[in-house]
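Hi Y.,

Following your request, here is the sequence exactly as I used it, all 76 residues.
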Amino acid sequence: MPGCTQRHCAAEGLQIEERVFTPKETQGAAKAFQASASSLVMPVVRIGDNIIGDGKPGPMTQKLHDLYLEAAGNPV
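Below is the corresponding structure, written out as tokens. Let me know if you'd prefer a different format.
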């Protein structure tokens, strides 16, 4: 059964890929986030010395975070 992040991304028309990646691969990333039941959706703006995108959380990260809160019964 897909988790919350997978369901929310699918509802927004986003495709996600879960896999192991290397820090070098992050050098070309525009945005990144990590998700879990305990931390909801948290932006990742840096991995080591590598800044992801412009170094700021993106609007999709915020939208997914808001969807988590709404699903939990805590509307934003």
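The radius of gyration is 13 Å.

Thanks again,
Q.
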